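Please describe our next protein:
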Amino acid sequence: MNIMPNNLKRQYDLHAAEYEAKALEVLRSGWYILGQEVTAFEQEWAEYIGRKYSVGLASGLDALWLSFRVLGIGAGDEVIVCANAYIACVMGISMNGATPVFVEPDKYDNIDADKIEEKITDKTRAILAVHLYGQACDMTKIMAIAQEHNLKVVEDCAQSHGNKWQGQTVGTFGDIGCFSFYPSKGCGAFGDAGAIVTDNAELADKFKVYRNYGSRVRYQNEVVGTNSRLDELQAGLLRVKLKHMHEFNRERNEIAARYTHEIKNPLVQLPQIRPGADSTWHQYVIHVKNCKRDALIQYLQGQGIGTIIHYPIPPHLSEAYQYLGYKVGDFPIAEGFAAEVLSIPMYNGMTADEQSYVIAAINAFEG
């Protein structure tokens, strides 16, 4: 048996006729940029998440860096972010000239909210709450800290489409919620795509100006903007996917439940769910202790099972951020996670036999 870590074709196959009909509808419309599909998707996504406004963008990274741009955060400012986040989260900060300030993760693989306050200085302007792997950060603590210190909050929901903290959908707590619709995401496009959500009409308007070369009226450019427009084809296809989000999330929860109940290998630490949170299981991330991860990867590969490491190099140790001056040992928890985490196969359309095969293989691993 050959099992990919993520098989995007399976989700396409589930509703292929709908995707193909929508693609033809958009192609035959003759309108491909900022048309009715984008407008409709923005309205539907805002309603799904539970915010007043959504603005479609070209990618999740654009959602991040434009968020800090429209909030006026730049050179000389600091933004707090978890040390084990994907590097795009940090890029969203540094692309504006601001400085990322790292905080260690907790046992739930997300930022340890109890360690945020000690990192706040007179230069701190915002907190970036990254809902990693499909599980929510502790937004109650984060919002309380932000309110006390008059900080902005941006939520990176790239991996968390529809999951909740204390019954409230992530992306609705902070000033801005950022989403990626990269194909592997819960509501994945068939190419690059992204969006923001907010309840602030002024911020939403700024995003619309910035995404279109800094212009709301053609050839009248108010600011130095960018080209970050969600195109009509991706918006139309995302509208189809959005209709099935409950189904997709339910299926991933069912797969995760099997893994959690049936994987019994003592070398494997299963993911933990923060009390008060649920998960949409963008990834099912195990921790493999005692330097056994590489051996498990090779073993599973030999069994025809693919895996991915999310993420092998913490941002503070990447070549891109050498200028920040960090060294090995500065964030030992994040660095430890980078040496332990492993994402096992998780995707919509995964068969029960495939799940059983993965479970049996992991349980049989002896190191």
Summary: The chain has a mean pLDDT of 97. The chain is about 35% helix and 15% strand. The two ends are 21 Å apart (CA to CA).
